[in-house]
Amino acid sequence: MTHDSGDGCADYLERIVFFLDNELDDADCAQVQVHLDECGPCLEKYDLQRTVKQIVARSCSERAPDELRDRVRVQIRQVQFRLNES
Ligand SMILES: [Zn+2]
Questions:
Q1: Residue 70 C-alpha to ligand 1 middle, in angstroms?
Q2: Residues in domain Putative zinc-finger (predicted)?
Q3: Residue 57 included in any domain
Q4: What is the domain count for the chain?
Q5: Which of 23, 37, 44, 74 could form a disulfide with 18 if both were Cys (CB 3.0 to 4.6 A apart)?
Q6: Mean of pLDDT values over 4-9
Q7: What residues contact residue 83 under an 8 Å CB cut-off, 6+ apart?
Q8: C-alpha of residue 68 to centroid of ligand 1, in Å
Q9: Quick check: is 1 in a domain?
Q10: Which residues form the domain of 63?
């Protein structure tokens, strides 16, 4: 198994988003977990996204209309794209 910073990581970043949303099945979860253990850059991005989600969850806990949640989702995507470019 390789963990160069090529296409593999981009693929994992997509899955990390679903991983954080608990939208992966067990097999994919395990794969992401293994990759995070091996790949420092992806782990950093995972930590950052998790932090963003926690902030979002806190700020949305009182009132979370669908419109706001959609906007938050877009913001998380934008963070992800910025991370992908760096
Ligand atoms: Zn990686």
A1: 27
A2: 9-42
A3: yes
A4: 1
A5: 23
A6: 62
A7: 13, 45, 48
A8: 30
A9: no
A10: 7-85
The residue with greater pLDDT, 19 or 59, is 19
pLDDT tens per residue, range 28-72: 999 999 999 999 999 999 999 898 888 888 776 666 667 777 888
Tokens of 29: 């979860």
Q: Are 47 and 19 in contact (CB under 8 A)?
A: no
Rounded to the nearest angstrom, the distance between the alpha carbon of 74 and the centre of ligand 1 is 22
How remote is the CA of residue 64 from the centroid of ligand 1, in Å? 32
- According to the model, what pLDDT value does residue 7 have? 56
**pLDDT score of 70:** 83
Residues 6+ apart with CB under 8 A from 69: 60
Cα–ligand 1 centroid distance for 53 (angstroms): 20
